[in-house]
Amino acid sequence: MLNISILSIGCTIFNLLLLFFVAKKFLFGRVDAVIAKRMEEVDDATRSADEAAHKALTTQVEYENKIAEIDAQKETIISDIKKQGYVEYERIVSDAKKKGEQIIMEARHNAEVENERAKEVYAAQLTDMVIDAASKIAATKHSSEDDMKLYDKFIVEAGVNNE
């Protein structure tokens, strides 16, 4: 049967307390130190991850700002280049118009000179014809009928040479 004695209960309680203090002193202390060390490592890793995430977010914002600035600069440069292109286009068109007007003026001048030369040649031919007709008239006897015939002949020849 079972015997319950106070001494046995006391020894059991003493053994349990002794086992508890020894385990606490040697086992739980080391386990608590390992757990505390692990907690610190986890906290450090969490802090580092938070810092890295914050740094990455800051870097991302900086890059987005730089990209926005570069896009603005790109648009400014493109608009400046377009303006320069339009100015250059206007200058080239203006120069071309000036050269075209100069060519037209030279062509008109050349046409006038050619026209004057043609008039001089025509006047010289007309003068030769008049002198020829006058010499024929002076060389022959003439009457008013002969004069009319010579005049008509002169007009016909002058009209033929003119065309």
Fold blueprint:
Elements: H1 6-139, H2 144-162
Distance between the termini: 165 Å
Rounded to an integer in angstroms, the radius of gyration calculated over CA atoms is 62 Å
Share of helix, binned: over 70%
Structural category is mainly alpha
Total DSSP helices: 2
Q: Catalogue the unreliable spans.
A: none
Mean pLDDT across the residues is 86
How many strands appear in the DSSP assignment?
0
What amount of the residues lies in strands? under 5%
User: How do the helices and strands follow one another from N- to C-terminus?
Assistant: HH
Give a quick account of the main beta sheet: strands, pairing sense, barrel closure.
none
Molecular shape = rod-shaped
From the structure provided, what is the oligomeric state, counting identical versus distinct chains? single chain
Quick structural summary:
The protein is an all-alpha fold.
Please characterize this protein's 3D structure:
This protein is mainly α. It is built from two helices and no strands. The radius of gyration is 62 Å and the shape is rod-shaped. The model has no long low-confidence stretch (mean pLDDT 86). The protein has a domain at 9-121.
What are the key terms here?
163 residues; mainly alpha; 2 helices
